[in-house]
Amino acid sequence: MVKLINKMLNNRLGFTRYCAAVVMVSSLSTGAMAADAPSFDCAKVNAGSIEAMVCKDAGLSQLDNQLAEVYSQALEKAKNEQPPTLKAMQRGWVKGRNECWKSEDKHACIEASYQTRIAELQAQYRLVDMTGPVFYACDGNPANEVVVTYFKTEPATLIAEHGDSTSLMFVQPSGSGAKYQGRNESLWEHQGEAKVVWGFEAPEMTCKLVTK
């Protein structure tokens, strides 16, 4: 009788351990799936859409989660922003990302869209380390000033101020110095001198670093 009871207890212990192992594996699998999932509900996306591509790609899903975190940080910084433009800008970005279906390399387009948006938010809302401001006097006129702040984003960015306008620029490949390009503005810095173009088809300015 004692042997029978011990056998039953051993069998029960073995079964319990087996169940615990199954639960652990299931939990790990669920956790891995959650880690690979983007910030939105993949069950609600349309087949063949850009969102569906993000859902199926672990790297793009990771970028989506990173953007969601950065966007949340930006929202906190922008809670007193007037006018409140961040949410509208984000909706515009989503529409722009979804235009990647027109691209020959959709994956590269989506990836670049996420990376630039993350960097843009980090720079605009000062969410990463920065250097500056750095002052440049242009064309020999101290009043013709460009003020630059550099941000440790990926890709690297800067925000330049000239007169009453500002420009967010992204780093570009360059054989020497550091070259940045914005919408209609550019800055190419080398050894304390910067070539600056401010506005569509505007003349290039030669700007010297000023110590203040």
Automatic annotation (TrEMBL):
Mind listing the UniProt keywords for this protein, alphabetically? Answer: Lipoprotein, Membrane, Palmitate, Signal
What are the C-type lysozyme inhibitor domain coordinates in residue numbering? 136-204
Q: Which residues form the Lysozyme inhibitor LprI-like N-terminal domain?
A: 49-121
Signal sequence, start to end: 1-34
**GO cellular component terms, semicolon-separated:** extracellular region
Please verify whether the record's keywords include Transmembrane.
Answer: no
- Record InterPro entries: LprI-like_N, Lysozyme_Inhibitor_LprI, MliC, MliC_sf
* Pfam families xrefs: LprI, MliC
Question: Does the keyword field hold Membrane?
Answer: yes
What's the protein name?
MliC family protein
Query: Which species does this protein come from?
Result: Shewanella septentrionalis
Question: What does UniProt list as this organism's lineage?
Answer: Bacteria, Pseudomonadati, Pseudomonadota, Gammaproteobacteria, Alteromonadales
